[in-house]
Design brief:
Strand content: 5-15%
Structural class: mainly alpha
Helix content: 40-55%
Strand order of the largest sheet: 1-2
Number of strands: 2
Shape: globular
Radius of gyration: 18 Å
């Protein structure tokens, strides 16, 4: 009601001269204890991306040693690269099993939220790609290609597509060519 409208008007007036987009506005509402409603039937792109972010973070938080995130310098390095306009467009995080790659990604996603940078996480071990549009719609809940959905939320700002557990795609499976094409796209 009026509280949300007053908060938005105050935020917009305080943000004069700064770029305001859907992500920064939704972040402001969350910080102001006025989070957007979580409606099960809300199929908007922003709500779907936020749901995928929450699912991603919960899935990684459950495997933390002692339920504690261990801060790693790699997370800071990745965020620096992501926020540098001249930085790399593709960052590949690799290492042996159990070395903390998922923990680094979890920390990076926490920092992306703090920086109001929209991101779309996809975990290929639990969200297996099988066939293009069906995958985007039925598995991820998106009405279009993930990159187009992410860009629609980011506007002119930066956005990050996070693909975790690429090694979970079994190249020998019956849908291997389709799965590989979806990942490559």
């Amino acid at each position: 009601g009026k509280t949300i409208i007053d908060s938005v008007i105050r935020f917009l007036s305080e943000s004069l001269g700064n770029e305001v987009n859907a992500t920064t506005l939704r972040q402001h509402l969350r910080v102001s204890n006025l989070p957007p409603r979580d409606m099960l039937d809300d199929l908007s792109v922003a709500a779907t991306i936020e749901r995928l972010q929450s699912v991603f973070q919960r899935s990684l938080s459950g495997v933390l040693a002692g339920n504690q995130l261990i801060p790693r310098k790699e997370a800071g390095e990745i965020l620096t690269d992501l926020t540098n306009p001249d930085g790399p467009r593709l960052i590949l995080l690799h290492g042996r099993s159990g070395y903390g790659k998922s923990g680094v990604l979890l920390e990076v996603t926490h920092r992306l939220i703090q920086s109001a940078i929209p991101f779309l996480p996809i975990r290929l071990d639990s969200q297996r790609p099988e066939s293009g549009d069906v995958y985007f719609r039925d598995i991820l809940g998106l009405d279009d290609h993930p990159v187009r959905c992410l860009l629609s939320v980011a506007g002119n700002g930066s956005a990050v597509l996070v693909v975790d557990q690429l090694d979970a795609v079994r190249w020998t499976a019956s849908h291997s060519e389709s799965a590989w094409q979806i990942c490559r796209d």
